[in-house]
Amino acid sequence: MSAIESVLQEKRVFPPQAKASAGAAISGMEAYKALVAEAESDYEGFWARIAREMLSWHKPFSKVLDESKAPFYTWFEDGELNASYNCLDRHVEAGRGNDNAIIFEADDGTVTNVTYQDLLDRVSRLANALKKRGVKKGDRVVIYLPMSVEGVVAMQACVRIGATHSVVFGGFSSKSLNERLVDVGAVALITADEQMRGGKALPLKSIADDALAAGGCEKVKDVIVYQRTGGKVAWTEGRDLWLHEIVENESNQCEPEWVSAEHPLFILYTSGSTGKPKGVQHSTAGTLLWAAQTMKWTFDMKPGDIFWCTADIGWITGHSYIAYGPLAIGATQVVFEGVPTFPHAGRFWEMIDRHKVTIFYTAPTAIRSLIKASEADAKVHPKSFDLSTLRILGTVGEPINPEAWMWYHENVGRGQCPIVDTWWQTETGGHMITPLPGATPLVPGSCTLPLPGIMAAVVDETGQDVPNGQGGILVVKRPWPSMLRNVWGDPKRYQTSYFPEELGGKLYLAGDGAVRDKETGYFTIMGRIDDVLNVSGHRLGTMEIESALVSNPMVAEAAVVGRPDDTTGEAVVAFVVLKRARPEGDEAKQIATELRNWVGKEIGPIAKPKDIRFGENLPKTRSGKIMRRLLRSLAKGEEITQDVSTLENPAILDQLGEAR
Ligand code: WTA
């Protein structure tokens, strides 16, 4: 039975426990329905109300939603604010400067506390230093940093002066970094000498040097380097600057730059089904609003809570639920530099115990790998730690299979913590479909119901609603404040990717398949319907990996598909035709390793194919089209039941089917 089938047959229901509902921001289904009704009866009024409640405006907005240039929507456009002011100053002004903003735990276990006042000082200093270097409102700054307080400081410092940041995950290659620097038109790059992961120092600055040397990014005038390890780095005089040196003599006062609600807060690159990664452009007010509001609704965050989101700031989850959401509501959060398996696979549970975490948010892949580890070694099992402070658990990034859900519920949540399975995307800015911890009866594997104000639906290929119980395409019917505003530099792509004509041009196309339960209307996500893979919760375009493979001089042709994987959700399988004869045995193994490393260098280690198979050709129709459905079956090791009569070269199936 596939994971989706098992979710659809799932009969277990976990109603909210009384203690989860008591005092919750949304305390039951009645309260949820009232908010849904409010949004339905007065859509703009609903959003205006929460935008006034959640955010501090320098200049109040008078207009809410402008649809005149649809699908290029604007929200609260004539309002002015600053995201950093909302995340820092307003808490300090309210007398909470001594509250902990961040409990940082380094890879080696060293813990540092950073108060709101400290954070504001550090952000202001760096903001002043950036200004001194000529970085100004509207400029783009690329951030290529490890998980660190400095990462959050860098993001906040950019938005404080109205610069738009674009964070690139520290696991991306120099080529990926170069492409992003060029596409976004960066004027500065903030990086580190090295990063520490699992006891090992890994290079960052040298990768950044390669990225800059690759050309096209001559606009980058300053490279600011955070000294993390003190490891040796090459230095370009006149360009490279140590972070600690440039902030040393800066004032800790920096007046925030007030920007329009629509001013781009950040651009974050993500994979699509075609072409290069897209620069997803987010607005200041809308994205900040929803990050803050969902902290309250989805996580029921209250004073005294200790929040921990294990994502990296290089992904959207680390933007909305580390750099912005928790700070916007004045929360205390744990930020972790390391990996879940170092020095042992009980690190997460040990840290929850040590920091008395109350709300824990992680990815299904992490859970699945820790299940395996704790089955092998009782010492790293969650039951070996005191997790009694936990009250809410969350997951994000990929579907969670019911077995992993149950394990998380029983072993980490002690059967007492609601699990919020949050469905959302880089493009949506914040949670879209998710249970509410004090209200929603939970069904393992289902993300349940849309948040109030989010008009999610399942439609067919023509944009018509499909009845519950029938699978279809997941869409959002009305614009919402935290939605992406554009694809950076490519409005046409924004329009065709997200508001396709086939669906009428008005529905937001998420790119996922979904089905709603016949009785409850609960949503279950069935995975991507485009050529995007989800490996360990990371989005990868099959075309990107194919292009990387084909750029290797040995490769004539390549096709990449996904295959279900017990730990990573999906795994990358590549079918490759070499320019030389099809390799076999040891030679095949050796070339496969070479190609895997090649992809690692071209894109980043996360994109390395798990399985590479060589053929003399690829299965093609007589018109030359690669039959991907067949490749997917071959990747899974399924018997071929599809009609292969249009196949030009049926013998190829035997070659490619043989798993290596
Ligand atoms: C998938 C991550 C099932 C989905 C926040 C989506 C999920 C893509 C879930 C976005 C979930 C995310 N259940 N699938 N709870 N959350 N996805 O942009 O395919 O990195 O389209 O954003 O992850 O990935 P992205």
TrEMBL record:
One of its GO terms (molecular function) is AMP binding. One of its GO terms (biological process) is acetyl-CoA biosynthetic process from acetate. CoA binds at residues 197-200, 317, 536. Its cofactor is Mg(2+). Mg(2+) binds at residues 550, 555. Residues 544-625 form the AMP-binding enzyme C-terminal domain. It catalyses: acetate + ATP + CoA = acetyl-CoA + AMP + diphosphate. Belongs to the ATP-dependent AMP-binding enzyme family. This is Acetyl-coenzyme A synthetase.
